[in-house]
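User: I've been going back and forth on whether these two constructs are worth ordering. Before I decide, could you fold them both?

Assistant: Sure. I'll take them in the order you sent them. The first construct and its structure tokens:
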Amino acid sequence: MTVRVRFAPSPTGFLHLGGLRTALYNFLFAQQNKGSFILRIEDTDRKRIVPGAVEAIERVLTKLQLIPKESPGNGGDYGPYFQSQRLDLYRSNLDTLLKNGNAYACFCSPTRLDLIRKDAIRRREVPKYDNKCRNLSRKQVEEKIRQGLSHCYRFVLRSEESNFRDLVYGPYDYNPAAHEGDPVIMKEDGYPTYHFANVVDDHLMDISHVLRGEEWLISTPKHILMYKAFGWTPPRYAHLPLILNKDGSKLSKRQDDLRVESLFSKGFYPLTILNFVTKIGGGFDEKLDDLVSLDELVDKFNLTSLNSSSCRLDMNRLDLINQLEIKRRAKYPLEEKMLIDELKDIVLKRLLDNKIDKRVLSEEYVRRVIHWASSESRIVTLKDLASSDFSYLWEPPTETSFNSLHGFNIKGRSLDDLISIIGSSNEGFDRSELTKQLKAFAKKENVLFPVVMKFLRGSLSNLKEGPSVGEMIDVLGIKETVSRLSKVKKYLDSNAIQDSRNA
């Protein structure tokens, strides 16, 4: 069997993690079986279409390297790939069902349908259409159409065998005719409903397997009945377990923090997001490392290993995986260079209004910052390095902040000695050795060692807490550290002279 799978989103919102999981697993299954991954846009709900959503979906898939073999952008032998451009195909297949008695025109008004719904609710029953128009004669139908009455078309649900074996959930038996009214398959505006269009399209596009969300599981027997009505063989089905928020609520397209493009904009990388999605619901024979390549995901994917129970998102894991991805990228010269350029751009944009010494954007320095920040998981994304907690990496403290250093009583000759101790160290110095020298300095000057460290921290960063002073000196470098301390000395000396004049 030639494997052909499709990812068929509706452009009623932007791609979020739930939709991405569906796209990814379709892609993995196709790649593993040397088949075709197809992107089809189900845009028949014209009122809910979001402008730009289709372009955004294609843009995200490209960035994630989930490239469809056939799509609106790439074309293919089974197009068009917009459902709105396939209306003639739906109409001709509707005619087939009308002729063989498996569909009919329905003239019930919205008012009547609303009365049926309210009456069912009043009787504490599940609302469903009463199939009234199924019994209209051909002559009655022709007369109503001649009169120009508004109408849709419905599919005849019959109590026939519609059970199937799902590749994830196993045997599934549900008789839609016993619980539902005949469903609309063609709306008054001439557009098909999802139930009808996806059956027609999957057949005409030779789709072999349908991998979609668990919410469509209950509708599948209805789809199988449509296949039978046409005399077609249905594809094999695999319904992916429901993804829930951490609090157990359902995901929504309106949750901006779960939009894939929103995650990109926050600094999460494509491989990070792909690996995060694979932690939701299984699909692999063995436990994967937290970060693996797309090729490895293809190799280890197993559709039958998917969990059938719903799963919850743990966004903290996304942070962990992105930290690993930064470390991985920093190991390879080409990807490291991309990180360096990215961080330079972030810093320049974030600190646009401030004057930045271009030396701090040298490739050597930015590389050192990235390796320092990623080595101990100090950041989740590169954007963190442009936050206020790390602003000292790019901008020295201002003279205004030096006022707080007066009370430490480290100035004049003492400060010269302190600068000399640090200046005599080499880049890549031994932190423990420097600590010994600083403790000796504190003892000689009769100053508590923690006071010396607080003075250094304030001089270098104007922070009260954060990385150790040794780490700060290490990442800033000896030259920059001495430069900042020298500016502090100049300021304190100047104030001392002014104070003596005022005395």
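The second construct, handled the same way:
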Amino acid sequence: DGAASNGFFGIVFAYERCDQVFLYGFAKEWNQNTSTGPVKYHYYDAVEPNESQQVRDDSEAPRMVAFVAKHASTFHYGDMAADEEGTSSGGAADV
């Protein structure tokens, strides 16, 4: 199946080190249009995934979702809009 993504490694590492983890940007709809425009693959640049990355992401996604669901008391999906208003997790890991 190939190597796991940096994002998956980050999720596992955060789980091992933190009591609470807020996940941002792990959207399978990264290439879909939203009311604010298309969701970017990376928040920090305009790089689009190559075919190999897409295959990896597609095969990895169910395992990542299962891992997060199995440890649901630790993981939470962050709301960037709410956090910008000052309701951040405060002290928890943001991945």
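Notes on the second construct follow. Residues 87-91 have pLDDT under 50 and may be disordered. Helices lie at 6-17, 51-70, 80-84.
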